[in-house]
Amino acid sequence: MASLRQTFLFMGLLVMALVAVAAPEPQSQVSAPAVSRKSAPAAAAEPIIDYRERFIPVVARHGMVVGPEQLAAEIGTQILRQGGNAVDAAVATGFALAVTYPRAGNLAGGGFMLIHLADGNRQTLVDYRESAPAAATRDMFLDAEGALDHSREYFSLQSAGVPGTVAGLLYALDKYGTLDRAQVLAPAIALAAQGLPVSFALSFEIAASAERLRQNPAAAHVFFKADGSAYDIGETWRQPDLAWTLTQIRDHGAEGFYRGEVAQRITAEMAAGGGLITAQDLAAYRVVERQPVRGNYRGFEVVSTPPPSSGGVHILQILNILEGYDLQAMGHNSAAYLHHLTEAMKLAYADRSVYLADPDFVDVPVQQLIDKAYATRQRARIDSRKATPAAQIAPGRPLGGESTETTHYSVADRFGNVVSNTYTLNFSFGSNIVVPGTGMLLNNEMADFSTSPGNANAFGLVQGEANSIAPGKRPLSSMSPTIVLRDGKPWLATGSPGGSVIISTVLQMALNAMEFDMNVATAAAEPRIHHQWMPDVLRMEEGFSPDTIRLLEAMGQPVDIAGRTSGRTNSIMLEDGWLYGATDARRPGGWVAGY
Ligand code: GLY
Fold it and tell me: What is the 132 CA–ligand 1 centroid distance (Å)?
């Protein structure tokens, strides 16, 4: 693969001279010359463009933030320019997204931050996933007949787990950042207090959830004008209550959220509305720093998110299975390739239904699941010519619910640190409930537990007893912030929202780059598939050839041209001293900010 890149070098150098006059301006926020990833030798002074690639990343030299929204990405980059490191920028971006991207940016949600530290050339994972309140019980969402009460599960105060975001961002800042709290929070506070112009994307997102947001008076107060009408594109949207909450955090740190006035407003709302979160739950919330999971794929090292996310384990499992095939000979997105990818996904997602859960409550056999020998055994179950019906796939015996929303951003600094962060409220706008006087939405992450063990959740994921509800436990996630290393150095930082499709999205992003030598923008743009074992459906995005679809159907694949897209990556590739960024065009508003 590397040699292929070298082959393209001459062409790259040739066209470079033309770039300045022939190419359209790169995105205006980037001052570096336009161009793409195809590698120049390590000593190259300039990045190289290859005009055979249909999608060109944004390029920067020193620092970059790629995220779902412009203002927050620019705030992160401003922090980098001021001398902050990637963790400072990631924390500032996380707080800013709580203001600018309310469908998934948050204070009262949770997530995972994967950090590559240049100092020591190592990676660590900050787990700030929500946890179940002490009063939570296994069957709390079942009604008297034993049926799931979806309204309580998704859209009530009981659907909220104890929030982890504020603790997680501040933990990362204290331990791995260099700036102080006031510096990283100042831009978010200013935006909330002074207001931001409503973008097309924001207006579109609020409109899509308007009916439900209007059902909660505090949410209606935040997201609509006093007369109940929506803010127009370009109008200034102020969030004074959220500015107050952020100020409490600035002035008092995590205590300002988990104790004191903010905590009192949360618990008062819980007590009044049948919610479970108490002052003790908030005070007891703890971040857990964990070892990421890691594995090798054809010489690349893939570092990803461990339980209580299932993401990293299954990405590695699937890569291990696929490593036994000559994927390049099959051809990218050929029917043969997609068939093998699908069969490997089914095996991994079947394992998810049984083995994955909060490792502090359940013994998750991580090393066995990501063992190459287990992959060899699993590969033997795949018929290269024919789909195996999901019903015939029992979860494997290793040797020895989720939502379509969430958000991801990637950050790289000039010191060599890299952050890959995914955090969420679960559904778009979470439970759609705002805590009065705080301006912040509550998550509905309790729905990510196995709320009715053995049955499929709202997203079709079958989950077992391991992920059942228990006090203090963290619900199983699919969030998969990932960093791929090449020659021991960060090469690709990526991640995605999308509930169960996060895993298949990040997997295909990484495969496109590692196996098929695509630049980061092309790797993001290629159409994707998703199969999660149950239901037995192969979801395919638009963009595959009808011939390919026919061949897959002939192999017995239950193809569904889903009419919706899979995931939304925000990624950075690091090559030869250059940063190449790409935000997925599948959603409006994404942004690459670099300098
Ligand atoms: N709530 C989405 C996830 O954790 O995967």
Answer: 14
